[in-house]
Amino acid sequence: MGKAPTPRAGLPREKEESNAYANALAQFDRAVAKLGLKRGIEQYLRYPKRELSVYFPVKMDNGDIRIFTGYRVHHSTILGPTKGGIRYHQDVTLDEIRALAMWMTWKCALMDIPYGGAKGGVVVDAHTLSRDELERLTRRYATEISVLMNPKGDIPAPDVGTNPQIMAWIMDTYSMNKGYSVPAVVTGKPIEIGGSEGRIEATGRGVITTTIEALKTRNMPVEGSTVAVQGFGNVGSVAAAYAHKVKMNVIATSDITGGVYNPRGLDVPALRTYADASGGVAGFPGADSITNEELLTLKCDVLIPAALENQITSANADQVKCRILAEGANGPTTPDADEILVDRGIFIVPDILCNGGGVTVSYFEWVQGLQSFFWEEEQVNKELDKHMIQAFHQVLAAAEKYHVDNRTAAQVLAIDKVAKALLIRGIFP
Length: 429
Ligand code: NAD
Known about the structure:
By secondary structure, the chain is α/β, with parallel strands linked by helices.
């Protein structure tokens, strides 16, 4: 089991701002200050419920054995089984996974999904592995975390660096050990083995659904509004495609290969085809190149960070020139940056709301898997849009009621729900 959670106080300022768990706790502190919870409850919710660290061997194609580090953290099981993605990235740390698990708890509560929060990760740059190595790593990691993972208790999904194929290997590994197929053990699977219609698109679609609501509340037109998207993976590329479909003007995007910019608008379908074929957006014809830093400070109506945490910090928040910040990624904005953005009147659609479409359709997929009864895409999207729009307006109403920014409002709603469940269950008399 891993070491105790890092407290926020005591870290050097710069290190503290880039520590996702310290940031999650700072956000939590802002929200609970509005709730007046019993101290015991507040303390309890600051910590993960359980953490697993695993160190496991994988045979590489050249015959070498490499030892990899992986984690699975459950933040809360109060509202139901734990749910949360699995990240493959070279910078994964236990603190990052703790933060992502905590945000999942708040996200599920806010989206009215009966799950607690979890997250998993492996410290690996998946781009450096062959397909066979990736499969062996995935099957071994799945076996290692199967002491926690199961369809009734803990259900993983894709996150940065993982995809439906990886979910298929996890489902197969778990099923092999059971002796029968267990589709409900993961979500984000390919349709052929029990995935849901609309799951791949769900997060990006939800990002744009909430962005459209934000534009409406600001009296800004949807058609022609300019959008910049950082990250062109599952979330970013779908958000860009959906924005393009509703006639927003996607002027820039970026990924690890570089960034592209065209003030007249990018041809997003052509860009997706290009990025699929070439491995990234860099060099897309008909666009200028732009750095990741420049993209974040472009003048635009909507900025969608859809890559990693800590992209908007105290170092660049005063240069961000969007009117709406729609957080496709988890934790892209640090608490210090938040204060600057809110002071500058930038409207934030916070991560636990903005990217909540992914877990919402994951929940639909899980329900379909348990019932072996599958829905049409139209039904999935209708239910998804309903959840997103309802949560958006609940957050706005809470921001007004508690006189707080949107992120704090979203967390107040979520934490209050979990705290009430704790009391009802009698965990805190
Ligand atoms: P992904 O691996 O599919 O895509 C990540 C993208 O970000 C890639 O295009 C990558 O090249 C790019 N990227 C990485 N570092 C970058 C950098 N420094 N600058 C610019 N681009 C960079 O991952 P994803 O599933 O799209 O997840 C993106 C974010 O959305 C993460 O924060 C994740 O936790 C969050 N999220 C994902 C889902 C989901 O359903 N996949 C749901 C909710 C939230």
